[in-house]
Structure formats: C-alpha cells, structure tokens
Amino acid sequence: MKNNIFLDNYHSILNVYDTQIAIKLVKDTFQKALSKNLELTRVSAPLFVDPNTGLNDNLNGYEKAVSFISVETNKKLEIVQSLAKWKRFALNKYGVKGLYTDMNAIRPFEELDNLHSLYVDQWDWEKIILKEERNEEFLKNTVRKIYEALKYTAKIVHDAFPSLVYDFPENISFITTEELEIKYPHLSRKERENTIAKELKAVFLMHIGGKLSDGNPHDGRAADYDDWSLNGDILLWYEPLNIAFELSSMGIRVDETSLVKQLKEKGEEYKLDYPYHQDVLNNRLPLTIGGGIGQSRICMFMLKKAHIGEVQTSYWDEEEVEQFKRKGIYLL
Predict the structure, then answer these.
(1) Using CB atoms within 10 A of its CB, is residue 202 exposed (0-12), middle (13-18) or buried (19+)?
(2) Catalytic site residues?
(3) Which end of the chain is more exposed for a tag (fewer CB within 10 A), N or C?
(4) What CA–CA distance (Å, rounded) separates 310 from 47?
(5) What share of the chain is helix, strand, coil (3-state, %, to 5)?
C-alpha cells in the first residue's frame, strides 16, 4: 500500500451509475472486437485445478496459489493464477483453433496500489499457430490486431461518453528489453518503462524473462509458458497517474526446445515430469500464441480512473479507503 499514488484535485469524470454502464460497454465491445480480430471462440474455463497436473501458472515462480481441500475427495486443489498453460490444453479439448475466456483469480501476495488488487479479472486467449509462424513478425502482427481492438473500443466509449478523452496513438511501437537497457542504462526497470511509454504513448516491450547484461531479467516470467525471445507486454502511457500502464502480457508459447532451456535457466527441471510438460516435450500439444488482457485495467484506462478499485469490487484496507476518499477517490 506504500506505493499508492494520491492525486490532488482528482474528480472522477463519470459518476458511479455511469461508471457501471461504461464498464459493461467497454467489456462487451472489446471482447467482441478481440474475438473478431483474432478469430477466437469463447469457452468455459476452470476456477481451480489439480496442482499435480502442472496446469496452474506459477507466474514469476515464487507466488503461492490459494488452495483448498475438497471435502468429498480430500484432494488439494488450487485457485488458478492464470490460464496460460490450461488454454493450450483446452484447444485440443474443445476442438477449436482459437479461444478466449474469462479468467478470475485471487492473488493474496499482490502488493496493493492504484493498479493492483487481490482480485484479478482478465480475458485469457490462445490460438494455434504453425511452426513457421513462431517468429517475431507474427507476434508483432498479433499485437497490432489487439491494439486495433483497443482503439475501436476506446472510440465507441468516447462516442457514448464524450467527456472521456480518446488518447490512443494511431500505431503501437515495438522495442526489446535489451534495446531499452542500452537506451536507458542508468534507469531502473520501472523507470525505463515509464520513460519509453511517455515517449511513444503505446509500446510493446519484448523479450521478458531472459537475463540482461547485469545478469537479471527485466521482469519475472514463468519458464514454462512464454518463449522469452517471443513475448512481451503492451504498455500505454497513462496521463492521470503519469505511469506506464500495462494492459496485457502475451507471447508465443514454448516448444520442446525453449521449454527445456528456460527451465534449466531457472533451475526448475523437475517440472519436466509434469503431465503438461511431458505433452509439450512429446509434441502432443499444438504450437500456440496467447496472453492475458486485464478487464479492470482496460476499464480503468478508458474511463480515466485513478484507482482500480473504482472499476472493480475487491478488498481494501479501511484506512486506505478513507485516505483515497479524502482525495476524491471512492473505492467500490
């Protein structure tokens, strides 16, 4: 909570009622545009999984998933942290070439601030690709299609609520973490993101997970879903908070070669015995590209809110709620 940003003279552009109407408009419009642009079919997804399958996403590798014991079977189950690996499995199960679904998660380890909540809601999507499409240009073209869906949604929202500023640049730019390090060697990782986002307004930051020249990655990534050389984050410059605003993390998924390489780099070779990882190693799963797109994040950005708690209902410390209230920020 110490990372909270308290704005002076903040006033929400939309009242609570109009905010709820606008949230539905954002979500309905964007998921239809995303589905059309990427040719995706909506499917049902689990809220929890068996941890022994290896299907749960362990994010940066240290976050502990929320778990519970089923009274009926005495089996330990885990609330999903994301559906990164499950979706690849589900493409076979549902018999579709591309899918998207609503993902809801609980992340008790999250450091709460204006952008982070204990409750995560996002659209998770996944699409089968060909071996020859496992390249940077295919990744960039997919990012452009997602960005077009974002721009289209923002225009619809602006038409419905003209007081909301439309501030999307025409095109999204691309830069790697290595290029960003060379460009701003003396800045921290977060400062680099803020600087490049302010400069370019919309940027896809690529190559996240592998080590940079100082021996550390730009940011943490699990070793067993994204190929670190073919992934990235969509960052937009968010004027109300003066920060780089991450809307999506995505990438081309690991094949048998990159899976082994990345697990070795993180010292997690034991995972190779999990059913999911065995399926990747033995080519029983399709090659795919996929990602997660924050639902509340998109709503917050497009409705120009100062806190994610203005567009989603979660848990906030009472003292924090009062602090924000005194600044004109009312958390749901």
Answers:
(1) buried
(2) 57, 107, 122, 233, 246, 249
(3) N
(4) 24
(5) 40, 20, 40
What's the pLDDT score for residue 56? 73
Q: Is the pLDDT of residue 63 over 80?
A: no
How is 4-66 classified by DSSP, letter by letter? --PPTT---SS-HHHHHHHHHHHHHHHHHHHHHHHT-EE----SEE-GGGT-S--TTTTPPPP
Tokens read off for 295: 């639902």
Q: Which of 127, 106, 129 is nearest to 117 (CA)?
A: 106
Q: Write down the pLDDT at residue 1.
A: 47
Number of helices (H) and strands (E) in the chain: give both, helices first.
9, 11
Nearest to 255 by CA among 235, 234, 285: 285
Question: Cα-Cα-Cα-Cα dihedral of 58, 61, 63, 64, to 10°?
Answer: 60
* pLDDT for residue 201 is more than 90: yes
Closest CA to 275 of 131, 85, 60, 46: 85
Q: The whole model's pTM is what?
A: 0.91
Burial of 254 (0-12, 13-18, 19+ CB in 10 A): buried
Q: Please give the sequence-ordered ranges of beta strands (E in DSSP) within the chain, or none if there are none.
A: 41-42, 48-49, 67-70, 75-79, 98-106, 119-128, 173-176, 202-206, 226-238, 243-253, 288-294
Reference 135, options 281, 279, 255, 37; nearest CA is 255
Residue type at position 143: V
**Does 57 have pLDDT greater than 90?**
no
Q: Which residues pair with 48 in a beta bridge?
A: 79
Contact 219, 244 (CB under 8 A): no
Would you place residue 147 in the very low, low, confident or very high pLDDT band (cuts 50, 70, 90)? Answer: very high
Quickly state the pLDDT bin for 2 (edges 50, 70, 90).
low
Q: How confident is the model at residue 157 (pLDDT cuts 50, 70, 90)?
A: very high
